[in-house]
TrEMBL record:
<dbReference type="Pfam" id="PF14343">
    <property type="entry name" value="PrcB_C"/>
</dbReference>
<protein>
    <submittedName>
        <fullName>PrcB C-terminal</fullName>
    </submittedName>
</protein>
<keyword id="KW-1133">Transmembrane helix</keyword>
<keyword id="KW-0472">Membrane</keyword>
<feature type="domain" description="PrcB C-terminal">
    <location>
        <begin position="89"/>
        <end position="149"/>
    </location>
</feature>
<dbReference type="InterPro" id="IPR025748">
    <property type="entry name" value="PrcB_C_dom"/>
</dbReference>
<feature type="transmembrane region" description="Helical">
    <location>
        <begin position="20"/>
        <end position="42"/>
    </location>
</feature>
<keyword id="KW-0812">Transmembrane</keyword>
Length: 166
């Protein structure tokens, strides 16, 4: 009878251990899921990336100061920010192109805080080239776009991220 009791106790202990292992595993998985959820929520709510509001300017709205400096940069593929009369403008240039039909658009502008009251701008632009056989102006062109932003200060740095569309 004593051996039956020992066997029963051993089976009971094994069952308890198995139950505790499964319970521990479930608790661990729940804890991991909670930690992942919290980190994602913190990243979402405390994200330093802020989308900058902007408006594309037509030729008549471009400040004279920007028209004066644009020739210095139009040969380059780049983004730059200018402060004119207390307002911040973002310019994206595509460089020299052999014909018309090349365009540039700005999809979005993000402001990324870099600490010490510094921030950088990341400008996401879409470049489009003329399609083969498309009728285009037979002259050298310098595609660009100028936007007026809601920013109050110039960025510390500016980065251009481009994508090409057919």
């Amino acid at each position: 009878m004593e051996s039956n009791t020992k066997k029963s106790n051993i089976k009971s202990n094994n069952g308890i251990k198995r139950f505790l292992n499964i319970k521990s595993l479930i608790i661990l998985l729940i804890a991991i899921m909670i930690m992942i959820s919290v980190s994602m929520a913190v990243k979402h709510f405390i994200n330093d990336d802020k989308e900058v509001k902007f408006r594309v300017l037509n030729d008549k709205e471009i400040p004279e100061k920007i028209k004066e400096i644009l020739p210095r940069y139009q040969n380059l593929e780049r983004a730059l920010a200018c402060k004119v009369n207390g307002e911040i403008f973002v310019v994206v240039t595509r460089g020299e192109k052999p014909t018309g039909g090349y365009t540039v658009e700005i999809d979005k502008i993000k402001k990324i805080d870099e600490g010490e009251d510094k921030f950088k701008l990341v400008v996401y632009a879409k470049f489009t080239d003329p399609k083969p056989g498309e009728v285009v102006t037979e002259a050298i062109t310098y595609p660009y776009i100028i936007t007026k932003t809601n920013l109050k200060e110039l960025p510390y740095r500016i980065e251009l991220k481009t994508r090409f569309e057919d």
